[in-house]
Each structure stands twice: as structure tokens, then as C-alpha cells.
Amino acid sequence: MDVIVCVKHVPETAEADLKINPKGTAIEESGLVFDINEWDDYALEEAVQIKEKFEGSVTAITVGPEEADSTLRKCLARGANKAIRLTDPKFEGSDSFATAKILHNVIKDLPFNVILTGALASDDGFAAAGPILAELLGIPHATMVKKIELNGDFARVNRELEGGLEEVIDVKLPAVFSIQTGINEPRYVSIMGIRKAMQKETQVLGLAEVGLSENEVGESGSWIKTEKMYVPPVEKQAEFLAGAPEEIAAKIADILKSRGLV
Q: Is residue 221 part of a domain?
């Protein structure tokens, strides 16, 4: 059972004091700590568990800068057999669509039964790369996956829905599954795993090796472009509305209209 897991090297922003860069198009990354995307961490663990149960191999792949090697080394230390980093200045500014195209052009020539991605990335939250990759490969996919049971050429997966509900579906392999947090308990990296990871090489591919043109990647090949990013203004005053429900509803409607929201 050959598994490919797509991971992303992202900044940890939960407790960081974020600033917008001078261009106003992204956050200032200097001084931030980077690590594997939280959802991808669970996808990696699921991939390793599948390999341990059914044998085979796990290939970790990322689109990112040279610094993303630290995330790939973590994947190798946790049980991945191979690591591929897709790096090129032309890749900068790629949205989910362009990123999926880059991944597709490499993955299509690799052996795989299952492709795992995180349900979303903490830096953009688009949750689109996995489904787009599946469409480009022409294979089935399922998102928000909380459980996977492999049986021959099929996988029975539990999908998380709204309101605490779950959907159970059978998906024909090969397929792409976007993993939700909580599907497993990611293991700690052992010292032995770190030593083994240091002995493995990361394959690095650029635009020429991927086989795409400049117009197919980066901002030119993207559907979405960030034109402006800003920190929402902090409201200094809270207004409490009193009266009957009908009166409060009317006041809220007037406020929304006065601020151009409706």
C-alpha cells in the first residue's frame, strides 16, 4: 500500500504578534516559528499507520522554500520513506489551484494507492488543494475524514459533517482523502527516527522538472490573488440594546443599514 502525504510548512501564529508586510499582501514572517501544518500532522500519522498495517511506503511531498526541509525531516523521522520538496521562485504566490497543479504534475508519475492531505492549512484556510488535486488526477476524493478503513480496492471513510453528524461512504481506490484533526494521535519523534531521517536525502524539483510553464504557477496560474491584507479595527465601544424583541430587531436593522452592511 503506497501512500503519498502532502504537507505544508506554515508559521505558528496562535500566540504571535502579527504584522502586515510593507506590500500589504501577507504577514511579516521574520521572527515567526515554522512547523508542519496541524492538519497535515494528522495526515502524516495516518499515512504511517497505513504503511505499518499494510506495508508499502510513504512519500511526503511539499511545495515550499528550502526552509521546508525541517518539516520534511520530521516526516522522515516519523516514518515516511521518501521526501520531495518542490521549490522554485516562480511558485511564490500560488493559490490552492496552482499548488494542486504543481503537486499533480509530480504525483501523477509516482506509485500510490492513497493520497492524504490536511483538511485545510492554518495559514490560508482555503481547504481546496486536496479536492482540486483529486480532480486533476481524475480519482475520487473525500474531505473532513475522521476514520479510514481500507479493504482491498475500497476504503470506508467517516466524514465529519455539521452539527456533530458523520457520513460513512465507500470510496474506490486510488483516492484522495483530506484529513480532519482527531483522526489519530500523532506520535512523538524518536531519537532513532531523527538519526534515520538525517541519513535520507530530500529530492528537490523546480519548475523545469515539474513540467509546467511560468504562466501555470504563481500568481499568473492562480484563481485567487491577495490584493490587500489588514488587521480588523478594534471597536472601542459596545452598545447594549434594550426593549422588546421587535424593537431590538428594528434597531439592529437600522444599524446595519447605516453602516452599509445591508
A: no
First to last CA, the chain: 53
State pLDDT tens for residues 101-149.
Answer: 999 999 999 999 999 999 999 988 899 999 999 999 999 999 999 999 9
Grid coordinates representing 247 are 424593537
Burial label for 113, CB within 10 Å (0-12, 13-18, 19+), is middle
**Count of the separate structural domains present in the chain:** 1
CA dihedral 63→65→67→72, nearest 10 degrees, is 20
Least reliable range by pLDDT among 80-89, 174-183, 221-230: 221-230
Burial 23-37 (b: 16+ CB within 10 A, else e): eeeebeeeeeebebb
- Tell me, yes or no, whether 19 lies in a domain: yes
The CATH number assigned to the domain holding 179 equals 3.40.50.620
3-state secondary structure at position 157: strand
Is residue 176 assigned to a domain?
yes
Q: What is the residue-averaged pLDDT of the chain?
A: 93
From the centroid of its chain, how far is CA 121?
A: 4
User: Domain span at residue 171?
Assistant: 2-216
Is the backbone of residue 161 left (phi > 0), alpha (psi -120 to 50) or beta? beta
Give the C-alpha separation, 117 to 133, whole Å: 10
Does residue 229 fall inside a structural domain? no
